[in-house]
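Notes on consecutive records. When two proteins share a document, each keeps its own sequence and its own token line. Never mix them. Below: protein one.
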Amino acid sequence: MKKWIAVMLAGMMTAAALSGCGSTGNTAETEAPAEEADAAQADTSDVAEEDAAAEDSAAEESDMAYVQGKGTLVVGITDFAPMDYKDENGEWIGFDADMAKAFAESLGVEAEFVEIDWDNKILELDGKTIDCVWNGMTLTDDVLSAMECSNAYCNNAQVVIVPADVADQYQDEESLADLTFAVEAGSAGEEQVKALGLNYTPVTAQSDALMEVAAGTSDAAVIDSLMAAAMVGEGTGYEDLTYTIGLNSEEYGVGFRKGSDLAAALNDFFASSYADGTMESIAETYGVQAALIEQ
């Protein structure tokens, strides 16, 4: 009898043990798929977040989307005839101004012009107070490294401005050594006088440099040849001034924020407006057609 009871108890204990093992095994099998599902859901969530972040980053990197979203293309300029200057009604006109208006219209936005300190043009651009620099800007190494630039669209040079009655004395670089110059701060003109080791005073704009020479506070100025053709000599506001020698040759371009997709869009616009005659027609209005670069 005792032997039979012992056998029965042993059988019951074995069954209980087997039942316990079965229960533990089922729980592990149930938890494992649940954990895998949670991990899969987390992976999906991470991918979605990464995709959203990528989309946000792409949107942030698109200057075109930014400009079209706010409805304006803010153009950084200085008072610089024949490229950007005001008419009798206070409206900005000029070859660059008119081209900027046409480009803005092609984007479905309006051009807004803001006068800037030329020496701070890169800070203004990166700070998004302006969207581009479009003002007869020379494509220097510094400009090309700091901005996303368009193709060149106009030829130019830096020329020396002096009073007409002494112009015959300043016909080569050696004759300039003892002169005091006025030049626009941060301009290609400033680069030229620095390279020649000339004595100069930086001023806010090229138009200010002309005033310095007209007033006799500076002996000479260095400005863009396109501006010189429009602003000095017979029939201009500076009839007593003239330009003598050219110090270099250079090209104009438009600058956007580094990596901006607007530069490529402007290149396309330049190509189409050159092909259909729009660019030349605007250039003829301001007498700069001879300086145009084929697009």
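Protein two starts on the next line and is unrelated to protein one.
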Amino acid sequence: MKKGLLFRIHSFTGLLSGIFILLMSLSGSALVFHDELDSLQHPAIGQLNGRPLLPVDSCYRSLQKEFPHAQISSCMLAENTGQPFIFSVYDSSYRKGTQTMQVFVHPQTAQILAFRGAGKDRKHNFMAWLTVFHNSFHLQKKGEWLLGVFGVLFLLSLCTGIIHYRKKIVPILLFKKPLYRRSNLHQLIGVYALLFNLLIGATGVWMQRYVFTGSFYAAEQPYTITRKPSPALFFPLDSSLKAVQQQHPAFTAHVIYFAPDAKRNTAVYGSRSTNSFIHSKKYADAVFLDSVGSIARTAFVTEIIPENRRDIINAQLHYGRYGGWPVKLLYGLLGLTGAILSITGFILWFKRTTR
């Protein structure tokens, strides 16, 4: 391929995906610190000395008294007395029950502390809103399609950039002084963040690969969701969680998805300490409980089919959900390079076209 054509492809794909890269870079860097930033919008908890952490059963009953007609979907468990129980609920008091709201429950008194919306409540739940934005631009299937297409363009821009600037990669890595000037910022950032951006681009496109399949374009059948008030718990959850812990001592529960009726299972998601470092510390494994609280089945990450396990690892690599703070800081900083590349690339293009 001729050098001029290769450069034009690099410029064209970079310009087309520039805004996408900028938005995904900024939102992705913030989402690496999702839990830390989201906690800033949690209600304050006045801890009571000498009071233990309540079982989830008590919090569930307290929530039902406050919202007797609500459908209680799930609960994020409090890890200690300094964290609230966070229930996901559908209730007519919030957006007529059409959208999820999160209810914060005091971990020692079961008092309702506050509630807020989920993915569409930008003011009170910004990180959930940003997550939906990063995954679909809040455009549902159209946004998912845009992510897939722009992701491919981003990868194409990276690959053509590698070929076009290949002779400068080694000199830049060897700190050749003539290359270290302001006008070369685009190349410098591109080289030093090359592997990271290839990783993010490739894992992102892999997650969106379904938009290039025929099933994605198939007409969706109309479906009406029926919201029903949640029943009382079918069994003492706290006792069942202790039994799960005894049978699987490496497992720590994180989120409970409540069964809407006695015919279905209650799902408990968490993770085992024996899992590989690459797997989520909160959602890697699942235990399903029947209507009397006994273990119906497990879905540990080591038990699922290899294809699904690869998808899980791919997502972990994309979002940087492994390795703790060192990895988060690395992803947060390198994630911003995409935004810098889109801005510096546009400046270079603008200068060339206005000469």
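For the record: The chain has three domains: 3-32+152-222+321-353, 45-132, 225-319.
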